[in-house]
Amino acid sequence: MDKNLNTSSERKQNCSDENKCFELLESILDGEGAVDSKEMLNEKLAKCQPCFEHYHLEKVIKEILQNKCTKHMVPSELAATIRQKIQELK
Amino acid sequence: MSEVQRKKYSDKDKNNIFDHEFMPHIDSMYNFAYRLTFDEDDAKDLVQDTYLKAYRFINSFEKGTNAKAWLFRILKNSFINEYRKKSKQPAKVDYQEVETYYNSDNVDYSMTSDLRVDAVKDMLGDEISNALNSLAVDFRTVIILCDLEGFTYEEMAKILDIPIGTVRSRLHRARNLLKDKLRSYAENMGYDTEEE
């Protein structure tokens, strides 16, 4: 890969097909990319500023969703209630 | 989900499946139910109904297969069929309307492009949760299933009864909507979202 492409000023500032590219980037982020997607990803991010920004923003959002999203505690009696209802079914 | 051969489990098998394959997912199930209903009692009822249905139809579950996806599918369908009607949440933007809007070619991406990575990193769990909760249910659901629960696109397609291509595009639209919300939070936090 051309090292000169690694700064933002070297990347193209407009993406010709944002919708398609962004969907593809998100698929890769979700672990759904094809086998060769890692290579394709690096190339795309090196060449296209909107793709570079989109990928990194989505990556951070995915991480905070996974790590910070408020978890709701399961009411303690719920499992017992379910088991009891099932006993009644039998 | 594809048609499976109906089993004839003994009571011992049933209890075994229920305890070891179904019950371990109760935390995820409750969280999903809460994010669909926004109400503790409704979420409890929904999870309880789902587990009762799962037990009743346990013969159509194949032991050792993906119990979590199977249970999530039942929960989602129960929500659509029963709880959505009496849901206490206020009316949301019509899904079809939003889907069509974001499907069009002339979407203005500049709306979200100015949200900064640093601003997102500084957000609190409640802010993220509120932003997620404010999305229409179909968009909220794909983000929950993908990002919070880690389902694959294939599993999501089965849970939601939609093609994989629709999973992919709906996720993309949902994420654009979520970024709009996060951007307004970032502005309220005093982050300058306009300039470098």
UniProtKB/TrEMBL annotation, chain A:
Domain of life per record: Bacteria
Protein's recorded name: Zinc-finger domain-containing protein
Organism for this UniProt entry: Cyclobacterium qasimii
Automatic annotation (TrEMBL), chain B:
InterPro entries: RNA_pol_sigma-70-like (IPR039425), RNA_pol_sigma-70_dom (IPR014284), RNA_pol_sigma70_r2 (IPR007627), RNA_pol_sigma70_r4_t2 (IPR013249), RNA_pol_sigma_r2 (IPR013325), RNA_pol_sigma_r3/r4-like (IPR013324), WH-like_DNA-bd_sf (IPR036388)
This protein's record includes keyword Transcription: yes
Residue ranges constituting the RNA polymerase sigma factor 70 region 4 type domain according to the UniProt record: 127-176
Annotated RNA polymerase sigma-70 region domain residues: 25-88
Sorted UniProt keywords: Sigma factor, Transcription, Transcription regulation
Keyword Transcription regulation: yes
GO molecular function terms noted in the UniProt entry: DNA binding; sigma factor activity
One GO-annotated biological process of the protein: DNA-templated transcription initiation
Family: Belongs to the sigma-70 factor family. ECF subfamily.
Protein name from the UniProt record: RNA polymerase sigma factor RpoE
